[in-house]
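2024-03-11 09:14:02 INFO receiving multi-entity request
2024-03-11 09:14:02 INFO entity count = two
2024-03-11 09:14:03 INFO echoing inputs for audit
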Amino acid sequence: DSGVTQTPKHLITATGQRVTLRCSPRSGDLSVYWYQQSLDQGLQFLIQYYNGEERAKGNILERFSAQQFPDLHSELNLSSLELGDSALYFCASSAEGDFYNEQFFGPGTRLTVL
Amino acid sequence: KNEVEQSPQNLTAQEGEFITINCSYSVGISALHWLQQHPGGGIVSLFMLSSGKKKHGRLIATINIQEKHSSLHITASHPRDSAVYICADQFYFGTGTSLTVIP
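2024-03-11 09:21:47 INFO inference complete, emitting structure
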């Protein structure tokens, strides 16, 4: 158990809908990362937050947004969902904001868009 | 964009064999992560390397920043090592090496 929790574990929804994925980092970790893993594109970095502020941005679509709250949990919002958004979404946390820190991964949320 | 390439893509080994997985990247980086993804999907960070070599149990990781190359070695492989191994810089991931260790 990494100490990182993600909810829900599974989510099935329809095209055009909006969903919110939630991540609680390990106790004391200030940084949260979001990743997408799909069959055709592999793992992709989406976005990183550090202590409430956006720190780095990757291949995150404009239909997706994220935020980190004062209690350090983070939410990833996916809107106008398309079939191609079906994927595993992982969050990870680390103690600090730079890439030199070990990341601890949550169990992932499996999103299926029908 | 950093092209992160891994080889081999698939690897089958007998229990006890020494295993090497290679990772090369096109753009200079300051650090590299090695990750392990189990068949159930969970991801574990194995190493973060910025130079030289690190060892954890039967796993050894090395990196040569100048040559843009890193290797992950597994000594005395065991069936429980069966997983996908992924190298990554800050933003880009390799496609992974699927390892199967046969008893």
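2024-03-11 09:21:48 INFO post-check: Residues 52 and 71 of chain A are 9 Å apart (CA to CA).
2024-03-11 09:21:48 INFO post-check: The radius of gyration of chain A is 13 Å.
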